[in-house]
Write a structure and sequence with these properties.
three-stranded antiparallel sheet, Immunoglobulin-like, 137 residues
């Protein structure tokens, strides 16, 4: 997982612009999360669901006002990879994903984390944290 200004997946490769940051703001510009998921050989040809959720410093989902009330920022999708011809048995299968998010109205002076879940499971290294700078007086 990598935070970037923008990212794109084309033909199985990730193209990343302005990647590798962890501090932004105080105005939060558009951002991207570049993901490379290593799908185990024995998990090929199985439909999986992924979800990214934005959390605050306390680990609670960040909410934004909407006409239907507060809404959490979640981005989700599903995937299924097959075993490419000629791949050595037992090899992981690469799955690149690029998720682009528009500017977010996040309060300055705080820390946030994008957490990835696959089929409802997560791991400690499936997180990306960033800080929004405080406004200078």
């Amino acid at each position: 997982m990598l935070l970037a200004d923008a990212a794109q997946e084309v033909n199985g490769k990730l193209y990343v612009l302005g990647g590798g940051w962890s501090v932004t703001g105080p105005e939060v510009p558009p951002m991207a999360i570049a993901l490379k998921i290593d799908v185990p050989w024995n998990e090929a040809n199985r439909r999986r669901q992924w979800e990214l959720v934005l959390l605050d410093a306390d680990g609670s989902p960040v909410t934004f006002p909407s006409a239907d009330g507060p809404q959490e920022l979640r981005v989700a999708g599903d995937f299924e990879v097959g075993r490419p011809p000629g791949l050595t048995p037992g090899s992981d299968i690469d799955l690149p994903l690029a998720v682009n998010v528009g500017p977010l109205p996040l309060p300055p002076g705080a820390r946030y984390t994008w957490r990835l879940q696959i089929d409802g499971d997560t791991q400690e290294h499936w997180q990306l944290s960033f800080t929004v700078r405080s406004r200078q007086s």
